[in-house]
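Comment thread on ticket #2218

A.B. wrote:
> Attaching the input chain for the structure job we discussed in standup.
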Amino acid sequence: MVEIDSRKLPGKVSAGAARDFDPKNFDLIGLAMQEPQYRSSGVRELLDAIASSKVPCMSIMNMPHFPT
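C.D. wrote:
> Ran it. Output below, let me know if you need it in another format.
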């Protein structure tokens, strides 16, 4: 196991609701939500904005979502 203490690293971590962020303002995007939330209004638009921004993104879920 490797522990990374982000308090000792440059930069900052932000968290909030989908409507609170413009993906272009970040170097890395982390999504942490339950699978049904990916269909929620606001989240769909955020996912489109993330794709358009071409900013690297990692998704943290307890189970992969079903293929559509």
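A.B. wrote:
> Thanks. Noting for the ticket: The mean pLDDT is 82.
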